[in-house]
Amino acid sequence: MEKYFYLGSANTCQGFKNCFQFINPAKNGMTYILKGGPGTGKSTFMRKISKYFEEKGYNIEYFYCSSDSDSLDGVRIIEKNISIVDGTAPHVTEASMPGIKEKIINLGTYINSKIKKHKSQIENLLEKKSHYFSVAYAYLRCVGDLLKVKKIERIKSNTRYNFSQLLTTLKLTKNEKVGEKRQLFLSFISQTGISSLLDKNKFKNIINLGCKDYFDGFQVLSELSNTLSQQNISHTCFLSIFNPEEIEAVYIPNISILIVNNKEEMFKNEKLINTLIKKAGENIYKAKFYHKKIEKFYIANMDFNGIDKEREKLIKEIELS
Description:
alpha/beta
């Protein structure tokens, strides 16, 4: 069974970017929004539900946390047009049409009141977590500024990318229906630098643009996305974590092809940029360390039996939908 693993949000040079509005592209779909702090079991809640439906033969999309690849920010049961997302900070998701398009599930109601005795400790940990995220974003902003300078300084290649050849290779067929365009993330900043979910996706067909200049690659992918939209062809644009206004890859599901920019060339000889990215990753890792400490306080003060009953109730609701 083919599965796709996408990031719905990411730490970028412009701060935290949330693309959760694109997780469920179906207009008649339903989104369940989970509320509750760290350690309240949101990720486990989503994982168990998705595994249940996966074993029933449904295709699942997993949306990993950009600060913790072991944690989930959301899942989508494709055939049901149903998604379940973490709606707490920083990826705040609110209901626009409660009971119609969204439903809020508050796992915070299962927190034991004894958590109050840890108030000062949790506040201290939250302050440290916030500090390290601030430092990480400062480093990433430096990367963004350096890339702006490089884009201005670069000598544009006189060789025009053969865009018509790319379209011929893709063998696109115009769709008479309205195509859906999604914007998500495939890359994220890890402790060691740039990481990607490319391998985990196991895309069957990948076309590397091979542009000598990665800025040219961004332009080609933008042009491709515009063409696909004009022809009503559904596709997913994977945004760059360095500039979310740029596209680093495009996936066309009906022909199962992923088109990627030449990322190997992007920071090949950029020691300063690579150092800054690594520093950002190290600080994100430190923020994650304190986040885990906060989670432990809540895990020790949760009524997980109540959450299990909430999960079983939701599974039945989804099955009847």
